[in-house]
Design goal:
Radius of gyration: 16 Å
Structural class: mainly alpha
Number of strands: 0
Number of helices: 4
Shape: flat
Strand content: under 5%
Largest sheet: none
Order of helices and strands: HHHH
C-alpha cells in the first residue's frame, strides 16, 4: 500500500480517536453530578486505578504495550478531572 494511502487511513483514525476523546470528556458533567449526589470528591483515586488496570490488561491482551496505553489513559483521566473542576467552578479551563 502506498505511503499516502496509509497516512490517509491514519488521519481518519486520528479523527475517530478525537471524536471518542470528545465524547469521553463530555461525560464529565454526568460524572460530576453523580459524584456530588454521592458526596464523593472529584478525584476518585480508586476508580482511576480500576480504569488504568482495566485498560493496561486489555492492551496487553491485544498485543499492545500496557504501560504506554496506561499513560494515554492517565492523560484522559486528568483531562476529565480538570473538566469536572471547571464545571464545579474550581478550574481554569474554558
Amino acid at each position: 500500500m502506498p505511503l499516502k494511502k496509509v497516512r490517509e487511513k491514519i488521519e481518519k483514525l486520528d479523527a475517530q480517536i478525537l471524536n471518542l476523546i470528545e465524547q469521553r470528556t463530555a461525560l464529565a458533567k454526568d460524572v460530576l453530578n453523580a459524584k456530588k449526589a454521592l458526596g464523593m470528591p472529584i478525584n476518585d483515586v480508586e476508580q482511576n486505578r480500576v480504569v488504568l488496570d482495566r485498560v493496561a490488561n486489555a492492551a496487553t491482551e491485544r498485543g499492545l504495550d500496557g504501560e504506554s496505553v496506561k499513560r494515554v489513559f492517565e492523560i484522559l483521566i486528568q483531562m476529565n478531572i480538570e473538566r469536572q473542576h471547571e464545571l464545579s467552578g474550581e478550574g481554569n479551563l474554558p
